[in-house]
Amino acid sequence: MPESTARSGRQPAGTPEPPALAAAPEGPEPGLPAPTVLEVLRRLDGGPRGLTETEAGQRLARLGENTVPARRDPSWPRLFVRSLRDPFTAVLGCLGLVSAAVSAWGTASVILLLVVVSCVLRACGEHRADRSAAALRDLVATTATVLRRDDEDAPPVPREVPVADLVPGDVVRLGPGDLVPADVRLLRASGLTVHQAALTGESAPVAKSAGDLPRAAGQGVFDQPQLCFLGSSVASGSAAAVVTETGARVRFAAAHDPAANRPRTSAFDRSVHGISWLLIRFMLLTPPLVLTANAALRGRGLETLPFAVAVAVGLSPEMLPVLVTLCLARGASLLARAHGVIVKRLPALHDLGAVDVLCLDKTGTLTQDRPVLDRALGPDGRDDPDVLHWAAVNAWWTLQLADLPEPDALDEAILDAADEDALTAYDGTAAIAFTPAHRLATAVVRTPGRLGTHTLVVKGDVQAVLERCALGDDERERLGRLTLRHADSGVRVLAVATAERSARRGAYTPADARGLTFRGLITLRDALAPTAADALAVLTARGVTVKVLTGDHPGTARRACLDLGVPVGEGTVLTADRVDALTDDELTEAAGRTTVFARCTPEHKARITGALRRSGRTVGFLGDGVNDLPALRAADVGIAPREAADVARESADVVLAEKDLTAIAHAVTAGRHAGDNIATYLRVTLSSNLGNVLAMLCAGLLLPFLPMLPAQVLAQNLCFDAAQLTFAHDRPHPAALRRPAVLDPRDLLRFITGFGMLNAVADLATFGVLALALHGPGAGDDGAVFHSGWFTENLLTQALVMVLLRVGRRSAEGSGPGPVVWAALALAGTGLALPPSPLGPVLGLTALPAVYYLLLTVVLVLYAGALLAARARYERRAGAGTAACAGGGAAA
What we know:
Layout: H1 37-44, E1 51-52, H2 53-63, H3 76-83, H4 87-101, H5 105-136, E2 143-149, E3 157-162, E4 171-174, E5 183-195, H6 197-200, E6 206-207, E7 227-228, E8 233-245, H7 267-298, H8 305-315, H9 320-339, E9 342-343, H10 347-354, E10 357-360, E11 367-377, H11 385-401, H12 409-417, E12 427-432, E13 440-446, E14 453-460, H13 462-467, H14 473-488, E15 492-502, E16 517-528, H15 532-541, E17 545-549, H16 554-563, E18 573-575, H17 576-580, H18 584-593, E19 596-598, H19 602-614, E20 619-622, H20 629-634, E21 637-641, H21 646-651, E22 654-656, H22 661-702, H23 710-724, H24 745-774, H25 782-804, H26 819-833, H27 850-878
């Protein structure tokens, strides 16, 4: 049984005390006796006959309903206000206020409009995701069977009551398939086993009993056999139990502690803050530099302040908040429609694209929660079909004749692999079901052609079977080693034996299973999830490393990984006890090379997740139980399936329709698409804007007039920004999907510096062309021609950047141009058509002489060649792993 660690028993402020906390939340000290049944009932002021209706009503009024505290989703206005705290939005808002302060009302209006649009889009997307997630919530249970009395003297009557009406002291009955409706202490139990994977992560049912046993050393509260908890369900057997805790005091509700829901800094947050500060430094430096240079060299004063602010705005990517929100919202919408994946927090989609480590449990993700036959081995360790035959005879007649609360999963796995037609030749006469006491299942059959003889077919725990076989010590030891070798490989092992007995009419007992003939071993493994292998291959191709954090046996987890093609070499498996022996720095180093972490408690999972993040990895965690909550909160992005525990689903950033790795692979792909397009926009826009700013500074020092009017800067930016919105609909190169989409400020700075300088050189070359054009026939006003020529050249070079910095990506739209190419063509057309149009004079633009266009063509051709050469050099330096980086999606 995996180790479990008790969660904090702290109660929320203002929670009323129950009449008495029957079984102290943490349980007794190891080695001391647990409270007896009588002590529990005395503290609860109850009895085995249950409460009266009057007592139950009084306690319900005093203690409140038995419901886990509900999570309140933020309202749309609150989401809108929260989106204003986004650093990108804050930078743009500050620029808008500065523009308003210097009376640049057009610039201020446009910027503030973009801020509002961005916030509205983000708030709508997250509000829609919250509503979808709320629709997935369901009750843990609806009704429970409880013993209630009309008055003190009346006999107890079983009644179905809503789970919300249960109170401490109620006596409830549990049967197969029932959900445990509260934290309870068992009064009576018969063959009771419960599934408590949601609490501990252990896939196999856990045996429970009502005996007054001491708490063993190292035993967690969930391991105490006399206690059951809300969040678990009955696998087999029956029981009567007294309710000890309800509502906010159950252990399941401890996960709702608001203090545990503190926001974490995700990969997206770290990237956004780094890039935001990079932009802030540039924009704070630009206005003083423009003012100082103009005052020192041209004797201009504060009249250049609007131009300086316009230059700073020209450097900023005004559409960034809108484009980020569009990319993320579009990806989240497609995921919800096509794959049933709900992204509750839009930046989590970018985090999914940046994930390079995915931590997950084994059961239900890599494997199904059911066994399948692995091998049938004879006493010599070789495959022997007769062993499977006898095991199937035992399973068939045990299921037919024994009084089982529900079919045994191991028996069903054996029968699925056997030839059931051969079983009908036998006539079963008796069966003794498996019990934890004697760990055997026995079937008694009449063998065809052997009148007067019964065959006992015994199947069960290897040690229990060997003890009943007629074997020498050496042979028994050899078979024990054989069993251990297979068990260490991660399979469950059962032994099969038979014995001949004279037919009799009397009942058979477990004592009849003696002097057996050992037949062989049956090994069973967990059934693999049908889509897991393909999904793992896709994730590996995406550069995502999978790490298994499980409460199961290390051999079982290792076997599942190997069966699915996940390499698990020597030294790549760590158990919880070894993790405990490592310091944080040692664990950070070990976590990178470890594939399987076994016997993990919730605290281990959270600590391992934190160690991976400290090593610089972006971590996603897939979990579905209360035991996964600490790790869900510690990861960059928490993922939970729809059927997960409510608290796990509410704490997750992404909710899956099914617990299927294929959906995660789709989500990672969507995140890579969004991240690549966001980075493409940043790199293309910032490099082009930086080149323009450098050229403006040079022109401002060389010319007797402003190189571009504020209205022209604004118009140019609006044209460029409108064209770049198409990046939200672009399809990246397939190479961009093979690595995490990380916004690295240092890489961004290198990119925009190199390509920005190249753009500035093209602008300076244009100044030379304009100098020739200004002295040609029909040049007209020097200022108007210069403004018009540079305006046209800016839009044409920006269109070239949009196209040429993404030529390395294979067009996903087929042979025709995609939306980005069409937008670039429209941008170029605007640059050529606007100056001679009727709108030109309104902006201070005028028609250009023909010679200018000829000379500009030469400049553009040279610029395009230099751009492609610089891009190829950048890709070579970046290496094969980031070959797509400079190509517009360095851009990722």
